[in-house]
Amino acid sequence: MMQFMLLFSRQGKLRLQKWYSAQPDKAKKKITRDLVATILTRKPKMCSFLEWRELKIVYKRYASLYFCCAIEQSDNELLTLEIIHRYVELLDKYFGSVCELDIIFNFEKAYFMLDELMLGGEVQETSKKNVLKAIAAQDLLQEDEAVEGALREIGLI
Amino acid sequence: MANAIKQVINEVAEKVKMPSTPTRLRDLIRQIRAARTAAEERAVVNKECAYIRASFREEDSQWRCRNVAKLLYIHMLGYPAHFGQLECLNLIASPRFTDKRIGYLGAMLLLDERQDIHVLITNSLKNDLNNPVQFIVGLALCTLGAIASPEMSRDLASEVERLLKSTNAYLRKKAALCAFRIIGKVPELMEMFLPATRSLISDKNHGVLITGVTLIIEMCERSPDTLIHFKKVVPSLVRILKNLIMAGYSPEHDVSGVSDPFLQVKILRLLRVLGHNDAEASEAMNDILAQVATNTETSKNVGNAILYETVLSIMHIKSESGLRVLAINILGRFLLNSDKNIRYVALNTLLRTVHADNSAVQRHRATILECLKDPDVSIKRRALELSFALINGSNIRAMMKELLAFLEKSDAEFKAQCSSGIVSATERFSPNRRWHIDTLLRVLIAAGNFLRDDVVSNTIQIISESTSLQGYAVGQLWRAVSCSSGSLQHDGQPGDLDLQGATLPISERQPLAQVASWCLGEYGDSLINGHTNANEQEEPVVAGEDEVVDFIQGILSSSQSTIITKQYALTALTKLSTRFSVTVGRIEDIVTRFGTHLNVELQQRGIEYAQLFTKHVALRPAIMERIPPMEHKSSQQGLTNGSSGGGGTLVSNGDDNMLMDDLSSFTTTSTSHSAPATKDSNSLLNLLGGLDNFDNGPSAPVFTNSKASTAPSTSNLDLLDLLGGLDLSGSTLSSAPISGPLMTTPTGSSTSSLVNNNLANLLSSPTTQMSAAVSNSSSFLIDGFLGTAPTPSPKLQNVTAYDKNGLKVDFSFDRPVDNPNLVIVTLTASSSYGSTLCDFLFQAAVPKTFQLQMMPASSTVINSGIPVTQVMRILNPTRAVLKMRIKLSFSRDGMTIQDQDEVKNLPSALWQ
């Protein structure tokens, strides 16, 4: 089971954090700080895995963003790279060639996407199409509500 | 004027009446990003937080969603946002989907299972789980899956179970993972999900399939009964897997030519769980595993991910031997892959399987050694560990050549690990003594100061044991130090030792200087006489007395020598005064000068040794006699079956302090026993008494000496008894290092404590002697016990006391028949992920009615495959129920890990 996922920039700024196991806030901050520092100092020719406490850390850099996951000993680190890649593909499809700024300004959308791909630290959907369909349908629900709200405001409903 | 006041009042009134629309999320993010300094950013955030708080207080529901979203962004920057928790709950309770979406997101980020507001959220979740809109149910399930606490799990399990049977695949898959989380929190709830779970794996939808398999894995790992229950799904799993690899291209689930790798990996994992230790189930999956292993496309990472999982499954089940070879070969191919991640995974997996399938892994030895040259440190480290695991009697020469080459070139962080590994490997597999000594010396030369202390003591131990090679060793050492100190040119032909790279100054090679000093002190005369060749054909290394004294003086006067090295050197020099003839005056001069040294330890030695040149000059030859060969191996065998690490490790615990402690305890006891008639046995007794204290001191500081407190007799008396027992059993050989030099003391001399002191010093000054003595004495204690226990009581079940953080500690028990109150616990600590653990320290505590005595551990370094053992004696006079708390500390890959635990599974047979 994935324990947590962190997205951070090359400058070490946290862009997204998803914790699948309960941790006190202080511990979360410490873990984040430690891992960001460790990963940023690793050289590009090093492999994408590190052993850290009882967990295996799998990370990969896409442009200016690092995607970092902590998985358990029994999990498959090569497949975790695929999960990260799948997430990036989904974001890319959704935003249309995604960049760091998309994730900064639409961080909630990035969370929504992750929540359709994974649940409780496990993969819940292996079809890209299904994930994007679910997100699109939910976005539509929100839009309908916005339109309805606007109409109500000007007294049409 | 009045107008101006009016205007201000109007403005304020307007602000109070109609709060302006709050900053949009987008604008806030822009403002924060525009901040140039941290202080500026803080100011923006604080201002916005103040505004958000105020608006929360006013219970403004129109902008609540926007405010919470902004707060979540602020939270991600690391600012406190707990005041938004209740607002999230309000949003969740709102009927609007937009509100719920942000509300649940906030709940997942700001709350977790440890919060108390759960009663509130449970209610909202329950409502939303019954909502007709599937996406609202989906949000609720997602949140439940992320933050479910045990109470929430109990309250909402029935809702989840209902959704698990829903006709909507979108909800079924989410419900399955919720059930997965719930079982993790409250395993008893597993029963209720069982019927619905079975049907999940006949689903067509891949999302439902993968979540269903995940749920079954969790159930099987939690309950052996459920594991048996699910054995019958093996054929269905095999069928699904077969369809995945045989079916043609399906665009929906394709990942670079592989059909749904996520699902394939999950199924392989479940097969592994189901086939573990089950021949029948394993038989049913052999074929499909072989198919996956041969049919998977390996050009991309995704194919290798599947192969990797397949290899793990093949290794874990009772698979055919042909399949296992196939698996190892896949890993062998991984090692040649250009992708470093795949190489890393292969090394890691080989490391885990090397003990089971050593011969299969051996075939990839060359590739593994090649990985030692990898630029990636993680890969290097794994390759190094694996190389050590592969060493055996037949390949040690070839392997050691590579490892020594690696040691010479490697960074500091590897030098310690590599050299300790080489030492323990040579100890086990050396083809002969000479090769062993050569290898150890090369390690000393190549590793410089980055050596663990055990290497020094081990080397001295080996040299001391090999009586025929002592001269050879001293010659080689002399060659090494004289070459590296640069003060002397060595002539004659190059010996067996390759001294290339030996250009570092001696200050960078303290361990080498220590070993050289010790050996010069003991066997320096052979260097003068030229008895330094191992056989007739070789040309001996010869040096003059002055050269040797020059060298030692160089160490003693150098500010870069450590205190420990100087201690070795000073003792060596004093010893040489009885072996050399023309330089005695010089030596006396140097030794006397140390009487004013700033370091207390060295000063005391200086004064004491100076006495041996003046007042007690007659004693010097006897006291400075050669130490008899240390019987290291035989003394270890009783304790650890000859495992590595050995006596030297204690030294690394103690340093100067314990030497001093020992001395002081020695002095006090020796003055209390003043009867001259029993002097010999007394001093021996005292020495052991001192050692006994010392023995308990550094390695187990929390324990009282149980012997002293149980019986009215003192510990010394106890030891005397033990010694009596030893004499009877006739193991005089192993007591030699202690009794040897002492017995040679002229009994007629004074009873002043000075002599005793000197004796103690003599024994304790070269630290290895001390450690040898200690390990001897500790094994005496144990030998004594074992000897007095004729037949152990019925075999007691071994228990695993600790298995976390890569360390596994097992207890095995023994209860001597003649003392039913005594339990002897032998703990075996091994490294479970195959990495090397250092600085291992084990402590235990028992209730007050018990008495606990800890023996020193066989080593502080746990190499993969070489467990460390330690003996505890527990005396239980009241036959109470035994409870034990343990505290462990060790370091792995440079990280220190500390942990405490209670050992709960102690067998009741221990006290009944």
UniProtKB/TrEMBL annotation, chain A:
<feature type="domain" description="AP complex mu/sigma subunit">
    <location>
        <begin position="1"/>
        <end position="140"/>
    </location>
</feature>
<dbReference type="GO" id="GO:0030121">
    <property type="term" value="C:AP-1 adaptor complex"/>
</dbReference>
<dbReference type="InterPro" id="IPR044733">
    <property type="entry name" value="AP1_sigma"/>
</dbReference>
<dbReference type="InterPro" id="IPR022775">
    <property type="entry name" value="AP_mu_sigma_su"/>
</dbReference>
<dbReference type="GO" id="GO:0035615">
    <property type="term" value="F:clathrin adaptor activity"/>
</dbReference>
<dbReference type="InterPro" id="IPR016635">
    <property type="entry name" value="AP_complex_ssu"/>
</dbReference>
<keyword id="KW-0168">Coated pit</keyword>
<keyword id="KW-0653">Protein transport</keyword>
<comment type="subunit">
    <text>Adaptor protein complex 1 (AP-1) is a heterotetramer composed of two large adaptins (gamma-type subunit AP1G1 and beta-type subunit AP1B1), a medium adaptin (mu-type subunit AP1M1 or AP1M2) and a small adaptin (sigma-type subunit AP1S1 or AP1S2 or AP1S3).</text>
</comment>
<dbReference type="Pfam" id="PF01217">
    <property type="entry name" value="Clat_adaptor_s"/>
</dbReference>
<dbReference type="InterPro" id="IPR000804">
    <property type="entry name" value="Clathrin_sm-chain_CS"/>
</dbReference>
<keyword id="KW-0472">Membrane</keyword>
<keyword id="KW-0968">Cytoplasmic vesicle</keyword>
<keyword id="KW-0333">Golgi apparatus</keyword>
<comment type="similarity">
    <text>Belongs to the adaptor complexes small subunit family.</text>
</comment>
<dbReference type="GO" id="GO:0006886">
    <property type="term" value="P:intracellular protein transport"/>
</dbReference>
<dbReference type="InterPro" id="IPR011012">
    <property type="entry name" value="Longin-like_dom_sf"/>
</dbReference>
<protein>
    <recommendedName>
        <fullName>AP complex subunit sigma</fullName>
    </recommendedName>
</protein>
<keyword id="KW-0813">Transport</keyword>
<dbReference type="GO" id="GO:0005905">
    <property type="term" value="C:clathrin-coated pit"/>
</dbReference>
UniProtKB/TrEMBL annotation, chain B:
<keyword id="KW-0653">Protein transport</keyword>
<feature type="domain" description="GAE">
    <location>
        <begin position="794"/>
        <end position="907"/>
    </location>
</feature>
<dbReference type="Pfam" id="PF02883">
    <property type="entry name" value="Alpha_adaptinC2"/>
</dbReference>
<keyword id="KW-0813">Transport</keyword>
<dbReference type="InterPro" id="IPR002553">
    <property type="entry name" value="Clathrin/coatomer_adapt-like_N"/>
</dbReference>
<feature type="compositionally biased region" description="Low complexity">
    <location>
        <begin position="664"/>
        <end position="681"/>
    </location>
</feature>
<keyword id="KW-0333">Golgi apparatus</keyword>
<dbReference type="InterPro" id="IPR013041">
    <property type="entry name" value="Clathrin_app_Ig-like_sf"/>
</dbReference>
<dbReference type="InterPro" id="IPR008152">
    <property type="entry name" value="Clathrin_a/b/g-adaptin_app_Ig"/>
</dbReference>
<dbReference type="InterPro" id="IPR016024">
    <property type="entry name" value="ARM-type_fold"/>
</dbReference>
<dbReference type="GO" id="GO:0030121">
    <property type="term" value="C:AP-1 adaptor complex"/>
</dbReference>
<keyword id="KW-0472">Membrane</keyword>
<protein>
    <recommendedName>
        <fullName>AP-1 complex subunit gamma</fullName>
    </recommendedName>
</protein>
<dbReference type="InterPro" id="IPR008153">
    <property type="entry name" value="GAE_dom"/>
</dbReference>
<dbReference type="Pfam" id="PF01602">
    <property type="entry name" value="Adaptin_N"/>
</dbReference>
<dbReference type="GO" id="GO:0006886">
    <property type="term" value="P:intracellular protein transport"/>
</dbReference>
<dbReference type="InterPro" id="IPR050840">
    <property type="entry name" value="Adaptor_Complx_Large_Subunit"/>
</dbReference>
<dbReference type="InterPro" id="IPR017107">
    <property type="entry name" value="AP1_complex_gsu"/>
</dbReference>
<dbReference type="InterPro" id="IPR011989">
    <property type="entry name" value="ARM-like"/>
</dbReference>
<dbReference type="GO" id="GO:0016192">
    <property type="term" value="P:vesicle-mediated transport"/>
</dbReference>
<comment type="similarity">
    <text>Belongs to the adaptor complexes large subunit family.</text>
</comment>
<feature type="region of interest" description="Disordered">
    <location>
        <begin position="628"/>
        <end position="681"/>
    </location>
</feature>
